[in-house]
Amino acid sequence: MISELALYDVANTVGVAADLSHIESAAQVKGYVGDSQLEECLAGSTLVIMPAGVPRKPGMTRDDLFNINAGIAKSLSEAASKVCPEAMLCIISNPVNSTVPIAAEVYKKNGVFNPSKLFGVTTLDVVRANTFISELKGTPINQTQCPVIGGHAGVTILPLLSQVEPSSVFGDEEKAALTTRIQNAGTEVVEAKAGGGSATLSMAYAGARFAFALLQAMNGAKNVVECSYIESDVTELQFFSTPLLLGPNGVEENLGMGTLIDFEQEALAKMIPELKGSIEKGISFANK
Asked: 186-195 — which CB contacts under 8 Å span 24+ positions?
């Protein structure tokens, strides 16, 4: 599915590209370094994945990263909107709740915004939910699927335990504890690494899972469904993550939230003010 892999960073990309080029794949790999090579790197891309930025450290929230990562997301979005405006853009850079609105505003200002092609990658929340549920309930991990809606930070992450497949029964204490663990799983890793960074390997897996799902859909695969944070009209919020049916042109259909139980309705109401603030912060930054 990948004919050319172009890597970009401010340093060390050439060595990483050389390393990757030894993998038995038909993909041609090339590394690009620094501002002067950014547009060359992006030219002709059909899928752009943006994991750029600094990681969290103990005591930091994703929002603490905003001042650094917001500027990076804006500059990369400017370049992509200019050089490959038709490409799918998948944003991993935190805080996703704000960086996706930043990218959307950049694309809108440049007259090339297509809401079906801009994605905030929230797949790690789904991966964590599936893993923790499988561990708790003993369901087969390769069959366990839990949709996660909302955003990608703290209380804005809402796993829909009532819609888990295979169906499982959760007591009130289980629902509360499991939801909290999924919401705080990133902090769990940050604290376990004790200053050595944030989630990298699980994030790489989740990012690859979403990218391959999108590539499969772009190449005609049917019934490809993944959760992602996009511009949405499912709630009062301008951006929101829900399960999406993916197709050759990106979002084919927003599958929405389904029916929520009382616990989930309450959690949804609790998240809205925080997620709204993060969205507004991103939009305001983009329009400075």
From this structure: 186/56, 186/62, 186/124, 190/56, 190/57, 190/58, 190/60, 191/58, 194/58, 195/57, 195/58
Amino acid at site 276: K
Q: Which residue is it, tokens 């990562």?
A: 69
Amino acid at 115: P
Q: Which residues of the chain have pLDDT under 50?
A: none
pLDDT tens digit string along 208-239? 999 999 999 999 999 999 999 999 999 999 99
Beta bridge partners of 8: 32
Q: In the numeric block, which tokens belong to residue 108? A: 């809108």
Place of tokens 């690009």: 32
What pLDDT does 62 receive? 62
First-last CA distance in the chain: 39
Cα 134 from Cα 136, distance rounded (Å): 5
Query: Rounded to an integer, what distance in angstroms lies between the CA atom of residue 249 and that of residue 272?
Result: 29
**Which residue is catalytic, options 74, 117, 128, 152?**
152
Name the amino acid, one letter, at 257. Answer: M
22 is catalytic: no
Q: Which two tokens stand for residue 135?
A: 């561990």
Task: Tell me how far the alpha carbon of residue 246 is from its chain's centroid.
Answer: 15
